[in-house]
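call fold(seq) -> tokens
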Amino acid sequence: MLPVSRIRYSARARRRGTRVAFALTVLLALPGLGACREDHDEPMLIRIATGSPTAVYHAFGESLAAILNRELPQVRAEVMVTAASAENVQLLNAGKAELGFTQADVLPADPGPDPSVVAVARVYDDLLHLVTTADSPVRSLADLRGRRVSVGAAGSGTKITVDRLLSVAGLGNAKVQQEQLGLDDSVAALRAGRIDAFFFSGGLPVRAVAQFAEHTPTRIVGLGEWTIPLRQNHSEVYVPRDIPRSVYGVDLVTTVANPNYLVVRADLPEALVREVTRLLMERRSELAAAHPAAGRMSPRSAIATLPLPLHPGAVDYYRASKP
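ret:
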């Protein structure tokens, strides 16, 4: 049975979801959403907030959207290109997206008793990359002092994590010349010599980093030693993880990682979220073909979404599927 702390969900949130679900009850009845729906009715729009087109969220989101569109005929799923985690949560809170991906460290430590955004699943871990060229003098975090560095786009989870990292390392307060660039712009700027290094937080492998390393001698700087200071000063979600040589063809390094969640508006109907959760788990091999990070999901790990509670539809699926 799922722990009580994982399924807390207020009566007010349930009432809010019931209002949205009222007109969709027949549409979303299990099994087979929409079997009794009138042909002229419009499908329900599911907007999935992702990230950069060359990053993991987008690849994962594109594959998930294709699965939802194929298997839930009364749903129309669309992928949104965003700055990633922080913007994704903002979009869900504003009712401008239904699903989205976010790093755990972007979320409030205490979401309160009635959060407007709740979890579907923990999907994989993001690893913080500090990327530079192989001939660069940047060999440690301290070597960024005085240099031009992309710290991630405004609204991204990367920016939040890097701000915290630079703070605990004593490199805040303009000690680094910071550029707020997205992943693709960061790669282009490093290639052109306009910056000395860039940060990006993503699941392995990050396609844009792999493409850069394929054509340019590359170094990824280890950050593992900063995991404990980050945990002590900010959040216990941070853990050390290795980036093996096999990923980018560069020397193995240990870096900082934190979990990624697929999150959902709390007012979405339970039956819909149950089906999304089912397809997320049952189509893992297809999702993994879009990006290997998706293949690391499992029902056992998926329920570990603290500090967010799971949506009742997700709870229903995990309970029913437990062997």
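The radius of gyration is 20 Å.
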